[in-house]
Amino acid sequence: MISDCFFRSTRPTLKWSGYFPAYDALLEPYLGKPITLVEVGVGRGGSLQMWRFFFGSAVRIVGIDIDPATKQVERDGFEIFIGDQASPKFWQWFFERVGPVDVLIDDGGHSNLEQIVTVAESIPHIQDGGVIIVEDTHTSYMDREFGTPHPYDFMHFAAYIVDLINGRNPDVTSAPKDSRQFAASVYRVES
After folding, report:
1. In a domain, 116, yes or no
2. Residue 1 confidence (pLDDT)
3. CA distance 80 to 49
4. Dist. CA 108–CA 25, nearest whole Å
5. In sequence order, what are the beta bridge partners of 64?
6. pLDDT tens by residue, 45-97
7. What Å distances lie between residue 187 and 37, 86, 142, 170, 180, CA to CA?
8. Is the pLDDT score of 182 beyond 90?
9. Is the separation of the CB atoms in 85 and 108 below 8 Å?
10. pLDDT tens, position by position, 70-80
11. How many domains does the chain contain in total?
């Protein structure tokens, strides 16, 4: 269980306890498989260590952070890339170096722009059957720090993706147009 791995971690990390059952359900199918896992938001490396405990040493674990000091976590066997998750150019550069990934977890900056750009730029690079997990989507409801709710917050973006998925049905005529092929790539959205 992920919660056991969380408590084994010797590096500091924060995770809402309510995430653990969701992680167990979403990530169990990847156990024992040679996957590439990317986590945005390295901090002091505690969650990267948690993923290593959960998946084992055969999994490639890559971290992304805006703070260059997080490069020190590389000494524990992780790959660390420094960049701004709100920059499409960063994502292009990143995926040119890393290639496709199986699991992407966004626990980086929690602004709407950061979450939306991360998902939008990553979808084309997720392996078939892969998963993107965005933590802390509650920030879409926090008006003081994040300027939301707003028509362009992350939860509205997620609803847009659901609209695109529903628009696959040929009888649906009012769904938005999919200019980036999200509907063809996304199987489901869960909350």
Report:
1. yes
2. 75
3. 13
4. 22
5. 40, 81
6. 888 998 998 898 889 999 999 999 999 999 999 999 999 999 999 999 999 99
7. 19, 24, 28, 17, 15
8. no
9. yes
10. 999 999 999 99
11. 1
What type of residue sits at position 71?
K
Contacts 24+ apart (CB under 8 A), 70-77: 70/42, 70/43, 70/44, 70/45, 73/11, 73/42, 73/44, 73/45, 73/48, 76/11, 76/45, 76/48, 76/49, 76/52, 77/52
- Record the pTM: 0.85
Asked if residue 129 is part of any domain, the answer here is yes
Distance CA 142, CA 18 (A): 19
How far is Cα 112 from Cα 168, in angstroms, rounded to an integer?
26
On whether residue 87 sits in a domain, the answer given is: yes
How far is Cα 189 from Cα 106, in angstroms, rounded to an integer?
15
The pLDDT mean for the chain works out to 85
| 8-state DSSP, 181 | -
